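[09:14] KT: can someone run the structure on this one? pasting the chain below
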Amino acid sequence: MLTRRLVLAGLLSLVAAPTAFAASHKHGKSHGKEHGKAHEKAGHAKGSHGKSAHGKIHAQAQTVSQGRLDAVIDISHMTTVNDFEAARKRSNILGVIHKATEGGDWKDPMYVRRRAEAEAAGMLWGAYHFGTHQYPGAEQARLFLATAKPGPNTLMALDFEYNDQNPANTMRLHQAEEFVQTVLAATGRCPLIYTTASWADGKPVGSPRHSLGPGGTEKAILSHCPLWLADYRIQPQVPRAWKAKGWHFWQYAGDTQDCGPRGRKVGAVSGIVRCDRNLFRGDATSLARFWKEAGRQVNS
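[09:31] RB: done, structure tokens below
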């Protein structure tokens, strides 16, 4: 989710720096459709991460800090990928989650090619779908499955967030549930849910105001899926539905150099221009295990 498209009103009072209150923004860039599918985050520059002379990344990356591993990126066709092997060897990027589909009629044109390249470089591969309101959730899931072609080791995710570029096309809760149920029935696994605390908790966001309603995702099947949390603050706020389980991935920074928590700089990833950064709750061994087992036990 190259630039995750959401400026959450609920975060504005909590974050000082302009770049930090982008709590969630996903890649769904405009791709020529007339359905308002332009999901670039407002206020984010389109420049690339500034690389150092040695291609080193931020000190937080490549390390496990307080049980958090900085080794997963997410991208889309809008990302410039020069060398997955360089990202793997020089920046210790172990996993890639690539956009596969959006709505019920759009496929990322770089998905197939980059899957082959990333897997050839020894990287873990994942696919995500950006949900919309335009199509039923089950129909969107079928497009995602047909396009992503998930194998037993493919991580799957649903980007479920407020669509700030086209609010009327925001995926509804019942559609997200249909999507999850369809994927679960077809694969025996639930997808990760990419979201923010404000949206998942049912708080009004955007203009005009939109929300999931009272309770948000607390009683939805989504709450049984692993959480991929987007939050650009120093410490993330976990949605109520996941309070007991916490997050598995935390997207802590976006795809510009100064898009870390409170506008802090985030170093470049070798071989990749502009990618979102994600922490995993665990080490490299547990990441590989989670990647294969995620969503198999719905209540875990």
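[09:33] KT: thanks! The helical segments are 84-91, 111-120, 137-148, 173-187, 197-200, 284-293.
[09:34] RB: yep, looked fine to me
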